[in-house]
Amino acid sequence: xxxxxxxxxxxxxxxxxxxxxxxxxxxxxxxxxxxxxxxxxxxxxxxxxxxxxxxxxxxxxxxxxxxxxxxxxxxxxxxxxxxxxxxxxxxxxxxxxxxxxxxxxxxxxxxxxxxxxxxxxxxxxxxxxxxxxxxxxxxxxxxxxxxxxxxxxxxxxxxxxxxxxxxxxxxxxxxxxxxxxxxxxxxxxxxxxxxxxxxxxxxxxxxxxxxxxxxxxxxxxxxxx
Amino acid sequence: xxxxxxxxxxxxxxxxxxxxxxxxxxxxxxxxxxxxxxxxxxxxxxxxxxxxxxxxxxxxxxxxxxxxxxxxxxxxxxxxxxxxxxxxxxxxxxxxxxxxxxxxxxxxxxxxxxxxxxxxxxxxxxxxxxxxxxxxxxxxxxxxxxxxxxxxxxxxxxxxxxxxxxxxxxxxxxxxxxxxxxxxxxxxxxxxxxxxxxxxxxxxxxxxxxxxxxxxxxxxxxxxxxxxxxxxxxxxxxxxxxxxxxxxxxxxxxxxxxxxxxxxxxxxxxxxxxxxxxxxxxxxxxxxxxxxxxxxxxxxxxxxxxxxxxxxxxxxxxxxxxxxxxxxxxxxxxxxxxxxxxxxxxxxxxxxxxxxxxxxxxxxxxxxxxxxxxxxxxxxxxxxxxxxxxxxxxxxxxxxxxxxxxxxxxxxxxxxxxxxxxxxxxxxxxxxxxxxxxxxxxxxxxxxxxxxxxxxxxxxxxxxxxxxxxxxxxxxxxxxxxxxxxxxxxxxxxxxxxxxxxxxxxxxxxxxxxxxxxxxxxxxxxxxxxxxxxxxxxxxxxxxxxxxxxxxxxxxxxxxxxxxxxxxxxxxxxxxxxxxxxxxxxxxxxxxxxxxxxxxxxxxxxxxxxxxxxxxxxxxxxxxxxxxxxx
Lengths: 225, 631
Description:
The structure holds two protein chains of two kinds.
Chain A: H1 2-24, H2 48-54, H3 59-72, E1 77-79, H4 80-88, H5 97-107, E2 114-116, H6 117-129, H7 132-143, E3 150-152, H8 153-167, E4 171-172, H9 179-191, E5 198-200, H10 201-210, H11 212-218
Antiparallel strand pairs in A: 1-2, 3-5
Helix pairs in contact in A: 4-5, 5-7, 5-8, 7-10, 8-9
Chain B: H1 9-15, E1 41-46, E2 49-54, H2 55-58, E3 75-76, E4 81-84, H3 88-100, H4 111-120, H5 130-155, H6 164-173, H7 179-201, H8 217-220, H9 222-246, H10 250-255, H11 257-274, H12 279-290, H13 304-315, H14 317-342, H15 353-364, H16 377-395, H17 398-410, H18 413-458, H19 461-470, H20 473-489, E5 492-493, H21 496-505, H22 572-578, H23 618-625
Parallel strand pairs in B: 1-4
Antiparallel strand pairs in B: 1-2, 3-4
Helix pairs in contact in B: 6-9, 7-9, 9-11, 13-17, 14-15, 14-16, 18-19
InterPro entries (chain B): BTB/POZ_dom, Ion_trans_dom, K_chnl_volt-dep_Kv, K_chnl_volt-dep_Kv4, K_chnl_volt-dep_Kv4.3, K_chnl_volt-dep_Kv4_C, Shal-type_N, SKP1/BTB/POZ_sf
Region (Disordered) (chain B): 602-623
Catalytic activity (chain B): K(+)(in) = K(+)(out)
């Protein structure tokens, strides 16, 4: 009750102030809002030597990577929207934003909402120079959206839909609505050994290591940089 | 693909590892970088000023001069640099385009020189960033108007072999072209003035004889006035008939405003002639004479200012409408208030609300005749509020109308808008073309890629190398990435046409094919984006040719019966990007070397469902050039 009265008083005071301003003709004062400091967040990465030690790239490669990175993001960090923009440009026919969202979460290891150069380069180091075990680990981490150590069918379905979204509408044969679901079923049949409805990291790694296609495709991008 | 994004391609490819466990099929082989060299600096010497940049920066846009092999023509062996004898200041903007992906227009540059530099370096101006685009368009429009003004001066030149009718029309429209026309112009102007004057003087009372009441001049000198009127009407009639005869399109002339004014001006006279001496209708006849005053509008042919005033009022129709509406609202409100305020006072003139309307209007427009005044105190208070608000309400839309008038007076407003609309559409269309160019490039190179896979088996390695060499490494990597996605999802990318066809496939019934030549095309029926056609074509020199409207033979399809590939030969990726929508497509005779086993029946572009992925002029132009040998 007293809060109501307080609020009433405050409103009346504001109204009186408004009338006063109206009568005397003063302009509505520029309320100094704390302007969100347009993130002059600038990030400077660790030195080359540290990065060399942390990752498996050599100096030259790090130089090239950094130049490209900084060119696209002069401020030194990538936030999620920029990330989505960049990734979408590679897939002009579809909508890559959902998958980019998952990718972003996979790269942003310290969960601070932005991908700095260190995150970027460490992720790349695993993907391009890591052992097969590490790569599979990374992939599992990507699929496990809530990071609880299990891939459920719903999580997999989200990922699958995101991948199919990247194809866009104009495909051959036509994409039906339950294609992602079917694909998820196939995946689970292959991976879920004990049929408990979730895939754990061990099941995943085991199964992948027994599959020749997957093993071969893991090595596909080793010479990308 | 935009600039800096090229630097992220390795990242996108690395991220593709995320699809691998999900895929059920083997992935395609990654393109290898033959003679992979470290990124090197190249020196561009433009009129003595040295610019240096990475080779990769320039390679981002392979469709331009600097990004393609065309720059080799400018290579200077002794100094190991590329020399361009062009403007160094504009080159800055060009080079920044490669670096940042955005093209800016330096305001201090002349628009024509800027355009020339852009076309030299093979960059379409439509991709100027939004920050500079307005300025660019404004300058361009000014330039074009200047050119048009020059043209108009020549327009009045007399063309040889003009028929008499055309000469007459030209004389009517531009009186200063010949002396006769000028004489005619002034004579008609004079008679319009006389006619109006006569109508006015007719009603002036002149000369009362002592015992009768005052008569107007018109009644006193009836005959004289009648003769004057007849003469004027005769001249106007003759003029109208002459214009009607000379008009290039009589129907359009009769519908124009000026001709309607002419007709309305002379008609009362003829109607009066017809119905004289009939007492009943003479009242109506008198009314008709009012219309004679419309003759004054005939002056608008003679006065540019009057015409502009007319245009202004037409263009400010919304402001005038607002003025009227707000006035009406205010009138009703204040009239009601005044009526109720004055209800109490005795002998009040405010007998009803409509009666108060008059008071309100007179007060709001600050006329203040004084025939109706409020007597009560409340009435006086509301009356003063009414007059104050009247000033405000009327003053508000007036500046808008004034500025409109001045704007129309100085600019050709409507032509600008029409041109701007066309330009906007053309700009978007061309940006779209260059964008779909990249996705079409993938589809096309996929077909070629398959072809090269087939070739691999037949071990013609040289051809394969030739094919893949011409596709930049960046593009081949990007295509590999898209290919991996296809394998992961087990679906293929199709262009819009295929999508629509396969979509309609389910809907349409199978039609018997009507063309006899279809029988020879049996091998090509079936799948869209066919992978199984054995096409016996020589390796296309430039494999990143955007495939325009691609439609396949389909026995079930009645829209298109034959496969038409609009093939554009050499340098198409560049020329398609730079092709202006109104330019004829640049085709060179290399098209003769393409011996494809397809019959290309020139389908007019309008019939293809996909409308904007291919530059329209390629259609008709190709009809002549792409001759094909049938199987």
